[in-house]
Design goal:
With 374 residues, the chain is of the alpha/beta class. Among the domains are: 5-122, 3-Layer(aba) Sandwich (Rossmann fold); 135-258, 2-Layer Sandwich (Transcription Regulator spoIIAA), CATH 3.30.750.210. The protein is 37% helix and 17% strand. It is built from 12 helices and 14 strands. Strands 2-1-3-4-5 form a 5-stranded parallel beta sheet, with helices on both faces. It has a 4-stranded mixed beta sheet with strand order 6-7-10-11, sandwiched between helices. A 3-stranded parallel beta sheet has the order 12-13-14, with helices on one face. Helix 11 (314-327) runs parallel beside helix 12. The longest helix has 20 residues, at 354-373.
Length: 374
């Protein structure tokens, strides 16, 4: 909803451009909500906005390149009166490195752990740099409702430290939202007519309520399933090492819990999985898939695959292709490995040629196409 300038005490319009995953979309909605409450209004374009917020991604190097190019184009094509806010994972990376040395042009910089401060700082109520991560209601203010589906962040950050992944460094260690806050938010949206919930987190199945460590992800799913009027519960993303038998049984036995499971495997080679610090083997993953598929005929499994991780040989890659044949994923997201700062893999030589990475990624997509058409 676009608010009229004359009805707002701050009389400043903002425009948010979001890059990356659903977590970022959720965070952008939270930023928007807090700005509207402070009296800012939502502009219909960058041209008509006083404040431009780039909510950024940094999971791969091409995400970094996008925002650097965007900032360069913006500086060239727009007047200097507009305030530029860099937010999200790339912003946190810049802060960790030293933003003064980045060579980028912006006015404010907020990591994911600081987004609840954006509206106060822009309204002049706080000093930039003050961490104001709310542990309760504001943590999930950004719950988005669209066409009856509500997304709710239940856990922030990640503590797995996969060797290729920058997330723990830019989003921090895992921090779960209190159970009662999640329950109240879902119940409110159901009362307003929403019928489906999507729980978000880097690793939702490691959820532990901060007020009671016995109340974990399965407990949360069971509790939310009891809310009358709620038809479906979905969740993203799961880590294979935390996908236990209790969760499998619950998914397969509950009519309310979605049978669409996103289960990133990343590689089919035990050598590469170990180097990635994934915490499971190829055999572990295949056993997990077998349990899921044997538990319910409607189980649908999607996955992420990274090609060209340092040290990945042709034989390692063939093991990924053969795993695809065994699992028969319903959908995959494929990526070329790119070194990320702060990670363990960043210290390893990126020894797989970009041409080889490109060719392997093409073969992954070709394989998936044959599986779906077969």
């Amino acid at each position: 909803m676009t608010l009229l300038r004359e009805n707002n005490r701050n009389s400043k319009g903002f425009f948010i451009k979001t890059y990356g995953c659903q977590m970022n979309l959720h965070d952008s909605n939270s930023i928007e909500s807090s700005l509207l409450k402070k009296g800012f209004y939502k502009a219909d374009s960058i041209k008509n906005a006083d404040i431009i917020i780039f909510n950024t991604c940094s999971v791969r190097d091409n995400a970094d390149h996008k925002i650097v190019s965007e900032l360069g184009r913006f500086k060239k094509n727009h007047d200097n009166d507009k305030k530029i806010v860099l937010a999200g994972c790339f912003a946190k990376q810049i802060k960790l490195k030293n933003k003064k040395e980045s060579g980028l042009s912006f006015d404010y910089c907020f990591g994911p752990d600081e987004i609840t401060s954006i509206s106060d700082i822009l309204a002049g109520e706080m000093d930039e740099g003050l961490d104001k991560m709310d542990e309760s209601a504001d943590f999930i203010t950004g719950a988005m409702s669209e066409n009856g589906l509500v997304t709710v962040k239940i856990i922030e950050g990640c503590s797995n430290y996969c060797s290729y992944c920058i997330v723990p460094y830019v989003r921090g260690e895992e921090k779960s939202v209190p159970l009662n806050i999640i329950h109240d938010a879902v119940k409110k949206h159901v009362l307003n007519g929403d019928r489906e919930i999507l729980f978000l987190g880097q690793n939702v199945n490691s959820y532990i309520s901060p007020d009671d460590d016995k109340k974990r992800f399965c407990y949360l799913l069971k509790l939310i399933s009891k809310i009358e009027g709620l038809d479906k519960i979905r969740f993203l993303t799961s880590h294979p090492k935390d996908f236990n038998d209790e969760l499998i049984e619950l998914i397969c036995s509950s009519d309310k819990i979605s049978k669409d499971i996103h289960l990133p495997v990343q590689s089919g080679s035990d050598k590469i999985l170990s180097a990635m610090n994934r915490g499971y083997t190829r055999r572990d993953y295949l056993k997990l898939v077998e349990k899921l598929k044997s538990g319910h005929t409607d189980i649908s499994i999607s996955s992420d695959i990274i090609v060209g991780f340092p040290g990945e040989t042709d034989e390692d890659f063939k093991m990924t292709l053969s795993l695809m044949d065994e699992v028969k994923f319903d959908f995959i997201f494929g990526f070329k490995y790119s070194p990320r700062p702060f990670t363990k893999a960043f210290e390893i030589e990126d020894d797989v040629l970009i041409s080889v990475k490109k060719e392997r990624l093409e073969r992954v997509f070709e394989k998936q196409k044959k599986i779906k058409n077969g």
